[in-house]
Amino acid sequence: MAGDVIELGDAEFQREVLESKEPVLVDFTATWCPPCRVIAPVIDALATEYKGRMKMAKLNVDDHPATPEQYGIRAMPTLLFFKGGKVVKQVVGAVPRAKLEEAVRQVL
């Protein structure tokens, strides 16, 4: 994982995501999920490219089940975009980089 992607747990979610001054992309992921492994390098690259403008974070749904349950996460990977503490966009599945980058630009 790239150094620009934050590893989140349920405990840090409020501070790192809901109270963030900048928009946040949260990747709800699992170690057993092949599509999650496919999209991980894309998120790592975008985290570096958009550093300072959008925060990128990953939350392991198996290790931290409370937050995914609160947001109704049923498929991995699910990417939720937060702005001002609210979900403003959702992307499900290992989408192509261009589609994910378009979503990032829309949220910014």
TrEMBL record:
Domain Thioredoxin per the UniProt entry, residue ranges = 1-108
| GO CC, one annotated term | cytosol
Q: Which UniProt keywords apply?
A: Disulfide bond, Electron transport, Redox-active center, Transport
Organism domain of life: Bacteria
Positions bearing the site annotation: Deprotonates C-terminal active site Cys = 27
Residue numbers annotated as active site = 33 (nucleophile), 36 (nucleophile)
- Where does the record place the site Contributes to redox potential value? 34-35
Question: Which GO BP terms sit in this record?
Answer: cell redox homeostasis
**Per its UniProt record, what Gene3D superfamilies does this chain match?**
Glutaredoxin (3.40.30.10)
Record keywords: Electron transport included?
yes
Any one GO MF annotation of this record: protein-disulfide reductase activity
Q: List the disulfide bonds.
A: 33-36
Similarity-based family: Belongs to the thioredoxin family.
Q: What is this protein called?
A: Thioredoxin
